[in-house]
């Protein structure tokens, strides 16, 4: 069974940094375009970033560009989200998702909760 | 940025009834629209892509229609597991955007 497993969430103070990881089980992430999507408590979905299979191309939500960076691990089976200068409104569940031909999210992880609070 | 507006915000129906959900785009997006289902405490799941194609494993009671700027997700006869929140998402251009969601609740 194909699965995505996020990790790295937790409590962080405003202004701090956190790096989230997404690992694949039953699939090789380097074969796919991958994204991060977040969901604030009780709110809707917000796309964060998308990276190509080879890692050479990435797109970001304008509101997060410069603070968040998506990347791939050298082993090909991990995708990262580096988050800097975190604010209270970054508090959310962060999902890793596989992207179907740069279009749609056809496999999601279970999510990891990031709480930004002093 | 393409804005997606979903209506209604909440749909109260009984099992066996037909559900009709709407998603309207702020500009034409051709057929580049998907629908996702999110049950409480779970990650979203792709239901429909390219406006009318069912994703793998999605039952035939789910159907999508529409093009340009007006789209509809129809659930022909609600099963207990269909009560959830549904989001639409466009893929015409960057940034990718989602609608605010429609909650289908048990009446």
Walk me through this protein's architecture:
Chain A is mostly beta strands and 118 residues long. Chain A contains no helices and 11 strands. In chain A, the strands form 2 sheets. In chain A, strands 2, 4, 5, 6, 9, 10 and 11 form a 7-stranded mixed sheet that branches. In chain A, strand 9 and strand 10 (104-108) form a beta hairpin. Chain B has 107 residues and is mainly beta. Chain B has no helices and 11 strands. In chain B, the strands form 2 sheets. In chain B, strands 2, 4, 5, 6, 9, 10 and 11 form a 7-stranded mixed sheet that branches. In chain B, a hairpin with a 3-residue loop joins strand 5 (45-49) and strand 6. The radius of gyration of chain B is 13 Å and the shape is globular. At the A-B interface, strand 5 and strand 10 of A face strand 5 and strand 10 of B.
Element layout with pairings:
The complex is a heterodimer of chains A (118) and B (107).
Chain A: E1 3-7, E2 10-12, E3 18-25, E4 33-39, E5 45-51, E6 58-60, E7 68-72, E8 78-83, E9 92-100, E10 104-108, E11 112-116
Parallel strand pairs in A: 2-11
Antiparallel strand pairs in A: 1-3, 3-8, 4-5, 4-9, 5-6, 7-8, 9-10, 9-11
Chain B: E1 4-7, E2 10-13, E3 19-25, E4 33-38, E5 45-49, E6 53-54, E7 62-67, E8 70-75, E9 85-90, E10 97-98, E11 102-106
Parallel strand pairs in B: 2-11
Antiparallel strand pairs in B: 1-3, 3-8, 4-5, 4-9, 5-6, 7-8, 9-10, 9-11
Q: Report low-confidence residues of chain A grouped into runs of 5 or more.
A: none
**Total strands of chain B:** 11
- Judged by helices, strands and strand pairing, the structural class of chain B is mainly beta
Order of helices and strands of chain A: EEEEEEEEEEE
Query: Biggest protein-protein interface?
Result: A-B, 21 and 22 residues
Gap from first CA to last CA of chain B: 35 Å
Give the radius of gyration of chain A. 13 Å
Residue fraction in strands of chain B: over 45%
């Amino acid at each position: 069974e194909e699965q995505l497993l996020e990790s790295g969430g937790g409590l962080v103070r405003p202004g701090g940094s956190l790096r989230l990881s997404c690992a694949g089980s039953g699939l090789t992430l380097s074969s796919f375009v991958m994204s991060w999507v977040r969901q604030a408590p009780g709110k809707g979905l917000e796309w964060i970033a998308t990276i190509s299979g080879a890692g050479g191309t990435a797109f970001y939500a304008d509101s997060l560009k410069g603070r968040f960076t998506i990347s791939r691990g050298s082993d090909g089976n991990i995708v990262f989200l580096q988050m800097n200068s975190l604010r209270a409104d970054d508090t959310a569940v962060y999902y890793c998702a596989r992207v179907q031909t740069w279009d749609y999210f056809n496999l999601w992880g279970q999510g990891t909760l990031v709480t930004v609070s002093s | 940025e393409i804005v997606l507006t979903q209506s209604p915000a909440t749909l109260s129906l009984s099992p066996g009834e037909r559900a009709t959900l709407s998603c309207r785009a702020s500009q034409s997006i051709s057929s580049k629209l998907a629908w996702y289902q999110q049950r409480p405490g779970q990650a979203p799941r792709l239901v429909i892509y390219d406006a009318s194609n069912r994703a793998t494993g999605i039952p035939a009671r789910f159907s999508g229609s529409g093009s340009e700027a007006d789209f509809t997700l129809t659930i022909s006869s609600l099963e207990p597991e269909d009560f959830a929140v549904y989001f639409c998402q466009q893929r015409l251009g960057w940034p990718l955007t989602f609608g605010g969601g429609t909650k289908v609740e048990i009446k």
